[in-house]
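Go through this chain.

——
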Amino acid sequence: MKFTDLTLEKFTRLLASSSPTPGGGTCSALDALLGASFIAMVARISAQKGDFDDAEDREKNLVRIADEAERLRLLFLRVIDEDSAAYDRFAAAKPGPQAHAALRGCLNPPFELLEGAAAALNLGRELLERYYLPTASDLGLAALNLKTAARGAFLTVNINLRCGKDGAFTPKETLAYRQKSSALLEEAETLAKEIYDSVKNYVES
């Protein structure tokens, strides 16, 4: 089943059921999908409506940001289904080496999501210098969605590492993934706060 083909009603009905999928990783990817879409929207509107002194250079940069956000949007769309598919393979695997291999596969989608969320927030940070101000609330929502996505991906990465203590991951691998995921989460949260605070100050002024 492809969750990306479902209506919102069917998707949330499954989410509310006793089925383990869709779960946290898939829904974190959905948060990131919304965030990247907001980034692309703000960049495109700003490129069309922004009144800048260096209009040509600004427009080129905004188009680049929109294009990069679109690439991330497609990545998050893919991860929505990949995360659940990876868990389904793990749930169906026999105990032992097969389960270990399947659990290792469960780590890739949320880790890719965490990297992508940080990358999207870096695009949002770039927009702070050049966006069309009436889209401020949309940029703020991008930051909120991407922060939630990063936190969810971090939790999913680390629960998978915890489940792999029986041999799926070596201690060295576990430490490396934990350190990298912590650094990415810190980066994402710092960027999200900067974007949100800037937007909040503007809309309250």
Summary: Residues 3 and 10 are 9 Å apart (CA to CA). The mean pLDDT is 94. The chain has one domain: 21-204. The chain has six helices and no strands.
